[in-house]
Amino acid sequence: MSAPASPADAGHHEPSKFHFYIAIAMILAVITGIEVVLVYLPIAKWIVVTVLCLLSAVKFMFVIFFFMHLRWDKVFCTILFFIGLILAGGTMWALLHLFGAQASKPLSAAAVEVPAAHLATA
Amino acid sequence: MSSHAATIDHHHDSTTSTGIPNKKLLWWAFLASDCMFFGTLISTHLVYRMNPPPGNAVPTQIFNIELTSFSTFILLMSSLLMALAVNAIQRGNVKSTRTMLLGTMFFGCIFLGGQVYEFTHFVVVKKMTLSNSIFGSTFYTLTGTHGTHVAIGVLLLGMMYVRTFKPAAGGGLMLNFLHLLAVAVAAGVAFIWFVPGMIEVVYGASLGELFSHHAKPFLVGAAACAALFWFARNSSPVEFGEKNAIDVEAIGLYWHFVDIVWIIIFTAVYLLEYL
Q1: Residue B15 confidence class, pLDDT cut points 50, 70, 90
Q2: Residue A2: inside a domain
Q3: Percent of chain B at pLDDT above 90?
Q4: SS3 for B238?
Q5: How far is CA B166 from each of CA B156, B241, B251, rounded to the nearest angstrom?
Q6: pLDDT tens string B19-53
Q7: Which of B113, B119, B145, B172 would suit a FRET pair with B66, their CA atoms being 20 to 30 Å apart?
């Protein structure tokens, strides 16, 4: 027989993560602020790009693992999502390399670059 | 059956052979496929940015990084409210869930309003349209697709919000429909007219002029907000409760996903241009 909900059952609720979520959101906001300030600092470009990519990855991971509960869910959800993510990353990598090749550049862009290259060698 | 077994345990709601509820599995599979969708759009934009044709638009002369940073912050905070909505319903607190869902929708509308202002400004003032430069084509396609995702998210959140009022006694379908209509109208007026108008006011436009120019949509929006207050007064028992935590969590997954996509877009499309 099913028993009516008793006060003891209240303890069976999910534990509140209120303060934890607030802390995560504050970290994300601070990282965003750092990103915006970083692009104006006189630092080597490759360092800024690397740090921006790293900070974005950190924000991405914070959101998927904490806000989207991947940390507490079954590992299958993580695998499923990362299959899509890896395929997307692979597609991006392939596209950027394919279209980064000289033969794949848009004709108008190539037309500007080729005479410039000729001038440089002349 | 013991009293413990009668309570809901979300983490052991094994409705599939994987032990993961169907709804959650469906959303994760969809989000994984959406990653590929956005992956191709972002790469297309980057490919053309690395090989810009002559006469292409200069992004740093067009972008307003302060506004975009603010939009990013707003979207991150909307994710926080969404997480709190899921947290509230998992603890059976329907009232708090409603507040957090409304807050998430409101922040979503601010983000969309920022995008409406941005697009209008780019087209009217900066003269960058969808078809007059490669940069315009890829930029509007990418950010527009993301904005459409956010708009769909606001609608889904609205549907979830209205669902929290479904009477336990059954019926009330027409009332729920009208409630959803009021949510949609209020959100639409907010992000198409109100938020872009307020941003213009921040940049120096007159508040009186704004209200006189858009008097009709603002009146309709005010009527929709009044209707929302009237619907929210309903205190009769509702069907919605802790057992629906998985539904709120599923919508939350989608909302957080649009947030993570924006995290990538903000860095790849906006910030890298300033180097």
Answers
A1: low
A2: no
A3: 65
A4: strand
A5: 16, 11, 18
A6: 888 889 999 999 999 999 999 999 999 988 888 87
A7: B145
- The residue of chain A with its CA nearest to that of B65 is A36
Residue A116, domain member (yes or no): yes
Given CB atoms, is A20 within the 8 Å cutoff of chain B?
A: no
Looking at the structure of chain B, the number of domains it has is: 1
For B254-266, b/e burial (b = at least 16 CB within 10 A) is: bbbbbbbbbbbbb
Is B36 part of the contact surface with chain A (CB cutoff 8 Å)? yes
Q: What residues make up the domain containing B245? A: 3-274
The whole model's pTM is what?
A: 0.86
pLDDT tens-digit map of B48-93: 888 887 777 888 889 988 899 999 999 999 999 999 999 999 998 9
Q: Is A48 on the interface with B (CB under 8 A)?
A: yes
| Total domain count, chain A | 1
- Pick the residue from chain B with its C-alpha nearest to A108: B53
CB contact under 8 Å between B83 and A84, yes or no, is no
What is the distance between the terminal CA atoms of chain B, rounded to a whole angstrom? 65
Q: Would you state the structure tokens that stand for residue A27, as one six-digit string?
A: 């970290």
Cβ pair B135, B128 in contact under 8 A = yes
Range of the domain at A105: 17-121
Q: What share of chain B is helix, strand, coil (3-state, %, to 5)?
A: 80, 0, 20
Q: Token pair of A29, please?
A: 């906001």
Q: Measured between CB atoms, does B16 come within 8 Å of chain A?
A: no
**Residues sharing a CB contact under 8 Å with residue A94, sequence separation 6 or more, in sequence order:** none
CATH code, B50: 1.20.120.80
Buried b (16+ CB within 10 A) or exposed e, B210-227: beeebeebbeebeebbeb
The CA distance from B33 to the nearest CA of chain A, in Å, is 6
